Amino acid sequence: MPPLSARIGRTQLAATFAMAARARALRAAGQDVISLSLGEPDFPTPDHVIHAAYEAARRGETKYPPLAGTEALKAAIAKKYLRDQKLDVPVQNILVTNGGKQAIFNVIMAVIDEGDEVIIPAPAWAGYEQTVQFAGGRTVFIPCPQEQNFVLRPEALEAAITPRTRLLLLNYPNNPSGAACDEAALSAIAEVLRRHPDIWVLSDDIYEHLLFDDFRYATLAAVAPDLAERIVTMTGVSKTYAMTGWRIGFCAGPAALIKAMTVAQATATSGVSSVGQAAALAALEGKQDYLEERRAAYQARRDLVVARLREAPGLSCHTPDGAFYVFPDISGCIGKTTPGGTKILSDDDFAMALLNEAHVAVVQGSAFAMSPHIRISTATAEAVLARACARIADFCAGLR
Predict the structure, then answer these.
(1) Going by DSSP bridges, is the β-strand pair 248-252/231-236 parallel, antiparallel, or unpaired?
(2) How many domains does the chain have?
(3) CA 54 – CA 52 distance, rounded (Å)
(4) Which residues of the chain have pLDDT under 50?
(5) Is there a single domain that holds both residue 296 and residue 390?
(6) Residue 202: strand, helix, or coil
(7) Are 235 and 225 in contact (CB under 8 A)?
(8) Which pTM value belongs to this model?
(9) Domain range holding 256?
(10) Range list of β-strands (E), the chain
(11) Residue 262: its pLDDT value, please?
(12) Within the chain, how many helices (H) and strands (E) appear?
């Protein structure tokens, strides 16, 4: 067999996919598995969004789409950025992408060369590091532990910057911790960035509408408009509108960088599904009242899971500010042995034993650059979450 490329060899698939596959295999074998491993809303895509896609297809909107997105969708996105982010963005500074993940890919491909450094506060979604590895860059994680609410501190950012730093990647509300960053914290980060003018910033705001307890959303480009020419603000319809399978993301940023990102996209995929763009247009321009109902449901689920996990021996559980994850610390379980005889030496051991013995699928904290934790997705019904938490509590109580 001829050799594969070095970039493939250094790039690992996400642990979330591996855990989901393992859960599916156990289900296929007849086990009653509760999977809390994937971050995917359980709500349906709204009917008016599906209808808009259908009507677009009936009208013949099934040809190659414009590379950067349809003018109608980009105009709607510009209105959305002004409404939600308080950013006044011209349509030529907007790029529609095949999901938010491609926006991240495009940014990294546009600004990172071999050996360049990307700073990522940890815990962090695994896809960031994978893309940096693919591009030949080097990931520099800044630990942001539970005791500081999983939020980046400016002094830690300053200490991590080197002459090779090219990109800072921010994700608030955060996957996996649910931590959010308020205006004051972002202002402190901006002060550091002003001293380092050669660093780009990607702000991944995909969970922007999922904030709890009256936490006020803020984004760096609005907090520090003098830095806007260095910031790409990315979001999409996947999480807010329960449209993960439609694969529609979008981003706004400085014209030169958006142009470079468009080149990266042209090389990889070209434009985005035409009917998907019609659906996203309907989502952004249609009624928005149901979003508050869904946000409230996610908050109720968070409250249930946090309360139940705090009763489990060995777990310490932070209350997330947003998103649909809980990220408990499992330090109190390390060194113990399961009823099935597995020694728990890491969060990897914990997650696998929990799946094999209690039939609950979660994702180990090592997949998010922070151990010993596990990530639990709360994007499922309360009754299912209650059953899963009961199994987790029993599993922890059985450790010796």
Answers:
(1) antiparallel
(2) 2
(3) 5
(4) none
(5) yes
(6) strand
(7) no
(8) 0.95
(9) 47-285
(10) 34-35, 94-98, 117-122, 138-143, 165-171, 200-204, 231-236, 248-252, 325-326, 360-361, 363-364, 374-377
(11) 98
(12) 14, 12
